[in-house]
Amino acid sequence: MLTDADLDRFARHIILPQIGGAGQARLKAAHIAIIGAGGIGCPLIQYLAAAGVGRLTIIDDDRVALSNLQRQILFSEADIGAPKAAAAAAAAQRLYPGGRVQPLAERIKPDNAARLLAGADLVIDGCDNFATRLAVNAACVRLRIPLLSAAIGAFDAQVGLFAGWQADQPCYACLVGSDPARDGVNCAEAGVLGALAGMAGTLAAVEAVRAITGFGSPLTGQPDLGWLVGEAGEMGVELFVCQSGLALVGMTMADADAIVRASGLIGFLSAIPPGAVTLTY
């Protein structure tokens, strides 16, 4: 139940017809598990705490390093050496003292993923390796918990929502395959645009609020959505269709137009390739 203080704190949410008091109450009652308090996790944690999510579990076994501060905006130099999960939890608790925040300094693996994620209403994965992502995906399918996946690398970002236990829905492994040793983009080796992590984390927070409150149309079952930022600063969108690996970038404008319209995605821009004509929906 919302208190008088809640009504004041979350007034800008509550006056939105699509959320209202009922939606805010669902956020307060929700338990969201977050894997990774890194570049994606930091803005995600901030906005979920500020949104009034009643319970956050933050899972990360890493410690804050100087090289993290370029994009992991919850931390400062004073946090260097501290466990990320604990430092992020403390920051989230300061943002929303009325919520419960549990830090877990553990690495998720196939043998503990179900235990760490059990009871969550939504799992958000912002980690940096396929082995962890696939373990999280398998646990979410087994536990029947929606999985919101967000990833970044260099100038690319992707966000997708998966409900793979449903007969007509793909899981994360349908998109990337099931090999935990597959090659991927490592930010330590390839670099990453710091502000892009903020964009991915913020969009993941929007989709998390949507998944909990039910406003609009979720990304579940839609093509995975991502961005490509060109060298000259152009912004584009890539759509990866689950199981087929079909990418919108590099297609003809007519084919791209048909796929975007068929996907039902609206309100995003698509530049094919960066610097080309922009499609607006």
Explain the overall architecture.
36% of the residues lie in helices and 19% in strands. Helix 4 runs parallel beside helix 5. The C terminus is likely disordered. A hairpin with a 4-residue loop joins strand 8 and strand 9. It has eleven helices and eleven strands. A nine-stranded mixed β-sheet has the order 3-2-1-4-5-6-7-8-9, sandwiched between helices. A two-stranded antiparallel ribbon has the order 10-11. It has two domains: 218 residues, NAD(P)-binding Rossmann-like Domain (Rossmann fold, 3-Layer(aba) Sandwich), CATH 3.40.50.720; 60 residues, no CATH class. By secondary structure, it is α/β, with parallel strands linked by helices.
Separation of termini?
38 Å
The string of secondary-structure elements, in order, is HHHEHEHEHEHEEHHHEEEHEE
Give the proportion of residues in helices: 25-40%
Quick one: biggest sheet? 9 strands, mixed
- Percentage of residues in DSSP E strands: 15-25%
What's the average pLDDT? 80
Index terms:
disordered C terminus, 19% strand, Rossmann fold, 281 residues, alpha/beta, 11 helices, 9-stranded mixed sheet, two-stranded antiparallel sheet
Task: Tell me briefly what this model is.
Mean pLDDT is 80; it is low at 223-253 and 263-281.
